[in-house]
Structure formats: structure tokens, C-alpha cells
Amino acid sequence: MMLMCQRGSMSVLGALLVVLAGCQQCASTNSDTLAPPEVSQHNGTLYAACKMRPSTSLAQGLPKVYGQVLFKQDYPQGKLTVLLRLNGFPKEGDPVPRAVHIHQYGDLSQGCDSTGGHYNPYDVHHPNHPGDFGNFDPQQGKINAMIESEATLFGGMSVIGRAVVVHEKRDDLGRGGDAGSLLHGNAGRRLGCCIIGISSPNLWNNHQKQYSRRLRGN
Description:
Shape: globular
Oligomer: single chain
Helix content: 25-40%
Structural class: alpha+beta
Largest sheet: 9 strands, antiparallel
Order of helices and strands: HHEEEEEEEEHEEH
Low-confidence stretches: 1-6, 12-32
Number of strands: 10
Radius of gyration: 23 Å
């Protein structure tokens, strides 16, 4: 009788081990689905690109902004690096700092106006949204900058498919003392926008080289 009980216990234990192994495999599989196949194709790094164009509802007299916003992030916990290469700002006069943010929707059906508000997955005040990039000073009509962002290309919080928007004015960084300041930094009208999509490393590598040469003054 004791031998039969021991055998029965061992059978139950074996079954539990099989179930646990299966659960671990499922968890691993589910985790892997958060990484697009391009991650393994590009040595554990995901690249994305956003081709900036002027808003189709741009008011007369506002600058027509174009260029590239590029993204690079190592899977799974790497910091997201963003490279901005934008043109079309006035070359004369004092440069006006321009705010750049990630917005909720990749919808350009009504120009940049249909991209919704700031991407705010945690329901917090501006400027604590993961895509609040801040202000950038154009030089000779161009913005060339590289930053690190709290946004991510991976998982349920991924910004792929959302929009990047360049604004008319400076972001007041939530210090304006009104409701608009806590929503969008009172950054004004939307000059240009684009939708973030997965890309090959080529755009990043080419623009990063140009950016580095510019920093060196070459």
C-alpha cells in the first residue's frame, strides 16, 4: 500500500513538473511576441522612422517643416534614442524654440489635427508623458538633435504607429499655470507630423553619421 502511494505521489509530482514546464514555455513564448522579428534580424536592436511633412491644414505664413525623426532601441530594456533631423524653419531672425511631442494617434486624415493629444498612457500631467521630447532651437533653419526618451518601441506601451508632431511654439513644460499647460505645454499650432513605423537600420546609420560629422564641424 505504501509503495502504491509513493508511486502515486511521484506520478502527481511528475505531472506538476510537466505543467510548470509548459507554463514557463508559454510565458517565454508570450514574452517573445513582444519583440518584432526585426529585433533578431538586426542583432537585438529595433529601428523605427518617421518622415516629417508639413501639416495639410497648415495656416498661411507658418513654416513648412520636413525631415526625419529616427528611433533606435535595444531589446528588451534598452533606452530609446531619438535622432531629430528637421528642416524648414526660418533662417533669419532670432530662432524660436520648437516643441516636439509624440501624439496618440497615427491618423493624418485631417492633417496633424487628427493625431489626438499627447500620448499619455499613464494619465499624468504634461511634461511627464513618455513622448514629451521638449524644446529644440533651430540653427540656420534646421534642428539636429539626439536625445534619450522614456518612450519605448516594445510591448503594449510601444509608440510604433503613433505620431510625432512639431509645434509652432516653445513648450512651457507645465509651468504656465493653466489647464493647457498641463495638457500640452501651450506649444501652439501643429506645423508638421509623421507616423512612426519600423525601419531598417539604414536610415539611422546614414543620418547618425551626418549628425556626428556636423557635431565635429566637418
